[in-house]
Amino acid sequence: MSYYERHIFFCLNKRDGTEASCALHDVELAYAHCKGRVKALGLNGPGQVRVNKAGCLDRCAGGPVAVVYPEGTWYTYVDRHDIDEIVERHLQGGEVVERLLLAPEVGR
Ligand code: FES
C-alpha cells in the first residue's frame, strides 16, 4: 500500500519567451483551491490525498495541467468548478472526470 492513496501534482511552471506554459493561467489559485478543498473535506494526510506543486511536466501545450497518481490520470482545467469536480469525483470518489481529461497526444 502506498503512503498516499492519491497524489495530485499541479504544474506551476513558467517557461521562457512566448512558449505555452501553465503559469500563464491562474495555476497558483487552482493549486491553493484544491489544497483547501481537500483539507475542508478531511481528505488530506497519510493514507488519503496529497496535493503538490510541480515544475514543468512537459505537456505545456495542454496547460494548465495536473496529474493524479497512482492512476496516472492527466487533467486540464479552467476554473474552480473544474478543480472541485476533480477533488470530489476523483480524489474522493476514485472516478475519472472524463470531460477534463488531457488529450493523450498533447505534449510540449
Ligand atoms: S509548463 Fe506546465 S507542463 Fe510545461
UniProtKB/TrEMBL annotation:
Organism: Rivibacter subsaxonicus
Gene3D superfamilies: Glutaredoxin
Phylogenetic placement of the source organism: Bacteria, Pseudomonadati, Pseudomonadota, Betaproteobacteria, Burkholderiales
Protein name: (2Fe-2S) ferredoxin
Entries under InterPro entries matching the protein: Thioredoxin-like_sf (IPR036249)
SUPFAM superfamilies: Thioredoxin-like (SSF52833)
